Amino acid sequence: MLETSVTGTVSLEADRKGINMSRIMRSFYGHADHLFSVKVLEAALDDYKADLEAFDARIQMRFSYPIQVDSLRSGLSGWQYYDIAQEVIEHKGERLRVMHFDYVYSSTCPCSLELSEHARETRSRLATPHSQRSIARISLVMNGPEKIWFEDIVELCRRAVPTETQVMVKREDEQAFAELNAANPIFVEDAVRAFAKELQAEPRIGDFRIIASHQESLHSHDAVSLLVDGPTFAQSSLDPMTFAGLRA
Prior knowledge:
The protein is of the alpha+beta class. It has a domain at 62-229: Urate Oxidase (Roll), CATH 3.10.270. The chain is built from six helices and seven strands; from the N terminus they run βααβββαβαααββ. It has a seven-stranded antiparallel sheet with strand order 1-2-3-4-5-6-7.
């Protein structure tokens, strides 16, 4: 059982004054005892449109999804929690199934790594490259009838950027993580391109948007990059809080 936050909206004709808000809840609760799936969300969306006489509608369910992961070397395991939202949108007669997924990772600055090595080699000074906790928020359209599982997105992200933050850590795991970071230095622009390459190779995924934020340990500001593929998430203007909501 996962605690879930539900957002439901409908669009009304201009001559309609409004809706009875409890009817949105009643329509949703008609499906509350069903095992969660996108089909259940679509059935609730159909009820929204019928019960509220709406021409467009949207429903989104947000939750934290646990996956058990192993430590890098020590043989320990623990639960990693992923913030996920499933969304079904009906707009102008077209229906979209969208997933939003947050992936938290560590990013080592390639420039800082190079400078640290330069200090060691030229001045025999010990220097440590700066790394930071980072987050990628991936929004994607789910294509076709074949399901894409949450675990599939996790594996996709790990292939793109393998330095996912760890759950259970002993000294040998911390050393392995340091080695993994040094082997995979990455700028924020590199990160969104790496995620995009994996997303484009997955036929179950259509349009997508990636926002990555490297929450700097050197600068007083974060480094953020945004990459969009396809028209679904393309927009000329951004909500002023788009990047502010990216906190790992």
